[in-house]
Amino acid sequence: MKLKERLKSFNQGLLPDKVKLKYEAMAENAFRFFRGTCHLFYEDLAAAEPLPLSPLAWICRDLHVENFGSYRGDNKLVYFDLNDFDEALLAPASYETVRMVTSIFIAFDNLGFEEKKALKMARLFLKTYSATLAKGRAISIEPRTAKGIVHDFLTRATKSTYHDLLKKRTVSKKKSIMLSLEDERHFKLDRPLRKALKAHIQEWIETSSESPYNYEVQSVVFRLAGTGSIGVKRYLFLLKSTNAKNQYLLLDMKQARASSAIPFVPVQQLAWDTEAARVIGVQQRMQNVPAALLSTTVFQNDAFIIQELQPVKDSIKFRLLKDYRDMYRVIDDMAALTASAQLRSGGRQGSGTLDELIAFGLDLGWQEAVIAYAQCYAARTKQYYNEFVKDYKTEKYEE
How does DSSP classify residue 171? Predict the structure, then answer.
């Protein structure tokens, strides 16, 4: 099947007008294309020469250098950790590392770094990942333990306030505030859908034990975010406190679809109640502390993930890290966190035990195979991207 047919087939079930925006984002550069085509990666991986055996692990499955960031846990502390679990499932642990290492090669090439520097960074990631597994002890990173650029990143995040977030996302209207439609990430909803969504979330607030108390829905818009998730149904709600003056809350409600790797991962998966339950179930296993206000709901037969849009929540923008030493520290932290997430969720419903993960960390024989595949796939992604851009510019994706 040609690339165009593979992409159009995968995106067929998404919102057509938003898929156009997804293709536009993917045309930006090869790294953005890689982020938007996780399904291609695992389809190709399944057809390739098998990687060396590794223990099963809970993985986020779409790991790359910009899927780490800050969030506030339900213990009120701010952490730096893996932050995207839409594709999460049970799979060989090496699947997580090979996608991450591939992203390193693509990101460094996109930034104009020579390949030997990317290779050095890839080896660093695998070295730290293995060493963390071998110790058998998960670590967490928050402002008190962070170093270098990650410490600066978390320090800035902790200073972000709801006032700053509301200023970016809202406008004043008749002595109250509403979500702004001037924000390029916000889109107006038709009245019946807007009414149904507001009623649904208001009922969730009043009946769910995981919801915030004493809030009412003020407004709702369609929200655009990410790359791979562009095209799914996603909404942003502004809630106002009913017992505290000028106190507001922003909620993100995102449709959860089946992990695109399911057909290509020969591992028995759990029978989750919904796809949203899968996403937050794996997230709560892998993160040190669960994110605040993390919940699920079903709206008009679709499963959704509900979470607070936090002022402290942000992702590392790798393209902004110009200093090689900063990149070194960030990659080192990302490797330790990846291993820690697997250790933390080890031995649970099919995943490898701690002893198996430790043994995998001590056995370094699999690393060269991961690097070799990642290098080859980075080159293939560049070819895919060039083919995609050529077809995109000639409007073949409009057919």
Answer: E
